[in-house]
Specification:
There is one protein chain. By secondary structure, this protein is an alpha+beta fold. The chain is 27% helix and 26% strand. An eight-stranded antiparallel beta sheet has the order 8-7-9-10-21-20-18-19, with helices on both faces. Strand 26 (633-639) and strand 27 form a beta hairpin. The radius of gyration is 40 Å and the shape is elongated.
Length: 806
């Protein structure tokens, strides 16, 4: 039987369907919102897995690239291991579902969420969370659901349930809330320094938003849900628990008074060994039950001590933060570092600065993105005195690192203000609870030690809860034992102003509002205390970067000048890197970032880039290098790939007879730009930078001679470019008529550019035919001018054409 039902979640509609796809799974639901479709299946075994003492639940959230119309990258062109986003979403689904399985349930359960289609508006993670609850609820697997989840956002002060991608980007809150009919069961998200009251408001807004989704799951279960498998937790023989209590209670109470972790654990181990040996005499076939009864007694004894006596295992009361020790600049060679110790939890946090080429490329389902802030959390086995093989990061490490990253991201400066890629690594060297919060505190200090101008320091604190039949205690800065034996792990990160990130997991079926409010209030007091300790050690980001860190300077060039910086085939940018040793990154918008630990190298690279992109200006003075010598002058390179003509007449105030007597190939001299024509060709003068010789007399203007049908050529022969030098525009007339065709005679006030025949005008044309005027053309044909007779015909140009001169 196919059932398809829809329900509103916020302003969007979600549809749940079962009975059409994956019918052999114990529970399957296809959930749709917009054009995002997620298939969720739940399967389990009817028999427990032997030899384990935990719930073997596995959850996988898998995004198929075809869902977004993409083909996977890489050699194999198929999906491989889960990406970080998929791992994090898998954890979001696992955490609210796990506490709702029966106590002692050891049957294998697997939930698989497969994203089949995705649009650019509706995220698939929340759909997977709702679908997992629905699939488990309609399956025969024992489970105390249903629950429902929603993302809560806020745009312009208005709360939004199940916001779109665009609304998430525009908002200042991004929180995922999972809730049952009566309580909150899981929270995770990030905020822009919102207050505790606003956060509580967001949680209960989300709780109210999911109630209709819970009702829909209930109706689906009644319609087609299978009968649940029966499950009875194995019970110990009568009298065994009483015997264990009689033998073990005194030793457990003594161990609960030992404050040091390993000494306490050693005592627990000693007591357990003695209890097992003693009780086995009366119950020889029930060693597993004896050990389980001992653990239950230890669990209850420690909890009762906290709730009834107000005494924790390390002697603190419920609101005291463990002693804190901070050493900024702990490592000498890194860009920034800090050793953060809180009680028996310790983290070495190291910040490294890089350029934009160090950014991480994220192969996202919708589109690729570049990530400039990376936080990696490492939890080696020695941090808890254990041995195990070193492998890649597990799901726990990925999750803890992501929480710390979200806590700090909002406090980072913009890329425009601080154009560095930042990698923060937390090495947990000791652990007795709250290591992820040590990462937040130590990470903020390492960033400040590296000179990263963060907006405000961030601290984190882990809150716990012990609830015994309605009597409860909220615990500040929990230990590992309190996390393991308690009912809640509530991590709160933020600044003096407000919350930046949060994560809450519980082991009971839900939290009441008053408990959440009390936990947030205590967390704020503790966070302010920790921030005070951090400021005592380092009150502000360092003003200077480490001498080992790269200095990045950015300049902006016009986008059409990027090619000048890069050069053909990257030749120019490679040459700059080789010459200066700098790292250079060029963005599509024209931002050029130059990085090097050496300030002088950066200055040299910037000077080259400025020269490459500079527009030649008349009057500018350059130190130029002679790259070619001709009889009529020399060509000088004043910037890489840019040169201009220094005519022989501009060498010196005195007459220069031979070019080679004045300069040679490779010489460098200062020149001033005296002309830039419309095609960007540059003419230099060297003599204008010198003082005129004493008694120097300016040569009087030359009289124009009548050249008959060739017309006056004016003061100088030239290129026929414009003004009274003869050009392409003005009163030259068209290509026919007054100017004549390309061949034949040409007359008028200005000479044309005809390639054949005779030319006339104020200055005459550049090429072909005979040339007249006071100075005449410089090349080819006959020359009749006062100075023109001693100049040779033009030579070949560098580009294969004919060389021209100004």
């Amino acid at each position: 039987m196919i059932i398809r039902e829809s329900v509103k979640l916020g302003e969007t509609t979600i549809t749940l369907e079962t009975g059409r796809v994956a019918k052999q799974a114990q529970g399957s639901v296809m959930i749709t919102c917009g054009e995002t479709v997620v298939l969720v299946t739940a399967c389990g075994t009817e028999e427990p897995r032997p030899g384990i003492d935990f719930l073997p639940l596995s959850v996988d959230f898998v995004e198929k690239t075809y869902a977004a119309g993409k083909i996977p990258g890489g050699f194999f062109k198929r999906e491989g291991r889960l990406r970080d986003h998929e791992i994090l979403t898998s954890r979001l689904i696992d955490r609210p579902c796990r506490p709702l399985f029966p106590d002692g349930y050891r049957n294998e359960v697997q939930v698989v969420c497969t994203v089949l289609s995705v649009d650019k508006e509706h995220p698939g993670d929340v759909l997977g969370m709702i679908g997992a609850s629905a699939a488990l609820h309609i399956s025969p697997i024992p489970w105390a659901g249903p629950i429902a989840s929603t993302r809560v956002g806020r745009v312009d002060g208005t709360w939004i349930a199940n916001p779109t991608h665009q609304q998430i980007e525009a908002g200042d809150v991004d929180i995922i809330v999972s809730a049952s009919r009566d309580a909150i069961v899981m929270v995770e998200g990030e905020c822009d320094e919102i207050s505790e009251d606003e956060f509580v408001e967001a949680l209960w807004f989300g709780h109210a938003a999911v109630q209709d989704v819970i009702e829909l799951q209930q109706s689906m279960q009644k319609a087609i849900g299978a009968a649940k498998w029966s499950f009875q937790k194995a019970q110990p023989p009568e009298g065994l628990e009483a015997k264990v209590r009689e033998v073990a209670l005194a030793g457990i109470r003594e161990a609960c008074g030992i404050r040091e972790k390993h000494a306490r654990y050693g005592m627990f181990k000693k007591v357990k060994k003695a209890v097992v040996a003693s009780v086995l005499a009366d119950f020889p076939d029930d060693e597993a039950f004896i050990k389980a009864a001992y653990e239950d007694l230890r669990y209850n004894t420690m909890r009762e001590q906290v709730v009834d006596e107000g005494r924790r295992v390390d002697g603190r009361d419920s609101t005291t933060v463990r002693p804190i020790s901070i050493e900024p600049g702990f490592l000498p060679r890194t860009h920034g570092s800090a050793l953060f110790t809180r009680g028996e939890t310790q983290a070495i946090c190291v910040a490294t600065l890089g350029t934009s080429r160090d950014q991480q490329r994220i192969d996202g389902l919708l589109e690729d993105e570049w990530k400039r802030f990376l936080l990696h959390y490492n939890f080696p086995p020695f941090s808890v005195g254990e041995t195990r093989p070193l492998r890649g990061p597990g799901r726990r490490e990925v999750g803890h690192g992501n929480l710390a990253e979200r806590a700090l991201t909002g406090m980072l400066p913009s890329a425009e203000k601080f154009p560095y890629t930042i990698r923060l690594v937390s090495e947990i060297t000791e652990s007795n609870g709250s290591s992820s919060m040590a990462t937040v505190c130590g990470g903020a200090l390492a960033l400040m030690d590296a000179g990263v101008p963060i907006k405000a320091p961030v601290a984190g604190i882990a809150m716990g809860l012990i609830d015994i039949d309605g009597r409860y205690a909220v615990l500040t800065d929990i230990l590992g034992d309190e996390d393991h034996l308690g009912d809640m792990d509530f991590k709160v990160c933020g600044t003096d102003k407000g919350i930046t990130a949060i994560q809450m997991d519980i082991k009971i079926q839900g939290l009441k509002r008053e408990v959440v409010e009390k936990a947030l209030s205590q967390a704020r007091d503790a966070r302010v205390h920790v921030l005070g300790k951090m400021r005592e050690a380092l009150d502000a980001p360092r003003q200077e970067l480490s001498k080992h860190a790269p200095r990045i300077t950015t300049i902006k060039v016009k986008p059409d000048q990027i090619r000048n910086v890069i050069g053909p085939g990257g030749k120019m940018i490679k040459a700059i890197v080789d010459q200066t040793g700098c790292s250079i990154d060029v963005e599509d918008d024209g931002t050029v970032a130059v990085a090097s630990p050496d300030g002088e190298s950066i200055a040299r690279a910037l000077e080259i880039i400025k020269t490459l992109t500079a527009v030649p200006e008349v009057g500018a003075v350059h130190k130029a290098k002679v790259v070619r010598v001709e009889a009529y002058g020399a060509f000088l390179e004043f910037a890489p790939g840019k040169d201009g003509l220094l005519h022989v007449s501009e060498f010196d105030w005195n007459h220069v007879e031979n070019v080679d007597d004045f300069l040679k190939l490779g010489d460098e001299l200062d020149v001033k730009i005296i002309e830039v024509d419309r095609e960007g060709r540059v003419r230099f003068s060297h003599k204008v930078l010198k003082e005129k010789p004493e008694g120097y007399v300016e040569r009087p203007p030359r009289e124009r001679s009548d050249r008959g049908d060739r017309g006056d050529r004016g003061d100088r022969g030239g290129r026929g470019r414009g003004g009274d030098r003869g050009g392409r525009g003005g009163d030259r007339g068209g290509r026919g008529g007054d100017r004549g065709g390309r061949g034949g005679d040409r007359g008028g006030d200005r000479g044309g550019r005809g390639r054949g025949g005779e030319r006339g005008g104020d200055r005459g044309g550049e090429r072909g035919g005979e040339r007249g005027g006071d100075r005449g053309g410089e090349r080819s044909g006959e020359r009749s001018e006062e100075r023109g007779g001693d100049r040779p015909a033009r030579g070949p140009r560098r580009d294969g054409g004919e060389e021209t001169s100004s």
